[in-house]
Amino acid sequence: MDWTIIDSLANPDTGTYFALAQTSRNLKLILWCQGDYFLRENNVLSTGAAGLYVDGRLRNVAVMHAAPFNPQLWQAMVRNTQCPGNDKSCTTCCPEERTCLFTLCPYGMRKYIPVAMQAEQLYVRQVS
Predict the structure, then answer these.
(1) What pLDDT is attached to residue 91?
(2) Strand, coil or helix: what is 64?
(3) What is the pLDDT of residue 114?
(4) Where are the alpha helices (H) located in 1-128, listed in sequence order?
(5) Could you tell me the residue ranges of all domains in the chain?
(6) d(C-alpha 68, C-alpha 43), whole Å
(7) Which of 45, 51, 54 minimizes the C-alpha distance to 23?
(8) pTM here?
(9) Average pLDDT, the chain
(10) Residues 84 and 92 sit within 8 Å (Cβ to Cβ)
């Protein structure tokens, strides 16, 4: 079965995200996900023997929970997830003081420093 992603919300406090998915028969689910790939509007999610596919490509996405869509619940989640990227009109960088558990910002609003580079910078700071 294919699911089209209607909307998504990043949760920087947990490093997980929520995706609103819909089938061709108008069945909607709220998916609670984690992984290296962030589901975006108009992505097509499908299942296969090897795992979950996004737009026909196998991706590292784990669906931790699925719940029937409830408009009030979704709006509460929109109001309570404190990620500036969830506001689709926001294009500025995320404040540095903002705590975020995503290694790679789903919206590209924060500079990505690979883990190996982070360890190297830590070593340089300690030696200096």
Answers:
(1) 65
(2) strand
(3) 66
(4) 71-80, 115-127
(5) 1-128
(6) 19
(7) 45
(8) 0.81
(9) 85
(10) yes
